[in-house]
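PT: before anyone asks, these are the final sequences, not the draft ones from last week. 224 residues across everything. Please model them as a single complex and drop the result in this thread when it's through.
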Amino acid sequence: DGGITQSPKYLFRKEGQNVTLSCEQNLNHDAMYWYRQDPGQGLRLIYYSQIVNDFQKGDIAEGYSVSREKKESFPLTVTSAQKNPTAFYLCASARDSSGANVLTFGAGSRLTVL
Amino acid sequence: EDQVTQSPEALRLQEGESSSLNCSYTVSGLRGLFWYRQDPGKGPEFLFTLYSAGEEKEKERLKATLTKKESFLHITAPKPEDSATYLCAVHTYNNNDMRFGAGTRLTVKP
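LR: through. Structure below.
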């Protein structure tokens, strides 16, 4: 079955550490997205990519970095510069970003800073 | 700035008690309005897309409607398995991404 796989599902980080969240899709989608979800708030866009080797900052990109070396993969690194990283992170993909396309989401990764 | 507001934040219903969830939006140019369902600890799942005022879509006990300022998600005779958070999102001509509301957490008691 086609879909999006995020790993790990749970991750604990000590202050000052960088961590990388994995996102892989086999839907042959061009566009991929990273969202952050906090209690009581809507999903907020961190980064998105419309094509391999290209990505754009979203509303809350500070303290995060991404790469898009392959169409199927869009890993997110949470750096030590992100002051409040504890959150639920969602990766999504869409056929493309040119129109109102449905987002397909992964199951999410929950990051906790110790 | 594009804004999406959902109400109420939380809704508790008895099984069989019909109700509606609201999503109001202020955007400069709407490409599409989306409804998603999210279960605890999981990613959102797509329910509906609405593109123009007057459009309606139905799926089992759910019916989504759209006006120029808001969308409603009507739940008819809900069951406990309908308990989830329902998210509304808009895709506009200003952005290459979705703008999400904070969601409505629905609990249906047997």
